[in-house]
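Folds abound. Consider this:
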Amino acid sequence: MSRILIIEDEESIADLEKDYLELSGFEVEIEGEGTKGLERALEENFQLVILDLMLPGVDGFEICRRLRETKNTPIIMVSAKKDDIDKIRGLGLGADDYMTKPFSPSELVARVKAHLTRYERLVSSNVKENKVIDIRGIKIDKTARRVWVHGEEKNFTSREFDLLSFLAENPNHVFTKEELFRKIWDMDSVGDIATVTVHIKKIREKIEFNSTKPQYIETIWGVGYRFKV
């Protein structure tokens, strides 16, 4: 359930807004003084703030400015002031909407729902899912750099992880030792291709049931290696 904070010193208006919002399924708190309202808005977890401009203590403009320093919570400003300059100032400080009193409580509820939907969509789009490769019992989380083999987590060195994940991202593609060395170590392979062989051996010991008869990383004799699917 979304929590909404109303910062409004006119008790009758605040109570009316609260009643309509609660009928729509929201949990609503009211603060009638600016300083306390700002404190709660900063310290508690509210999904939206309805903010009057003219308040005792700290005014709505200052509350909006302070909130925007640390939070992206949607803010709907409400005021009896009809001047465009106040609306421009409020929106310029980071308010998401500006409603002029008197207004319909039903319209307020509609705007609250719209801003919450928009905010939730924005937050969801910013959540990046970990990139995971999942092949025949091997799960490689590239974002967290973790590997599980049939549900059991295995520890890999940085180069081992890079080599395994590269091969798994390119299944059935045969890479020469020289290509793998250039890709993973970012250097020419002159005199160093044995490094690839050693790392393949260590990886097999961790992912294969029988490293002498590999089921995942296959040696293509005379060519190189591939991750078999």
Summary: The chain has a mean pLDDT of 89. The chain is about 45% helix and 20% strand.
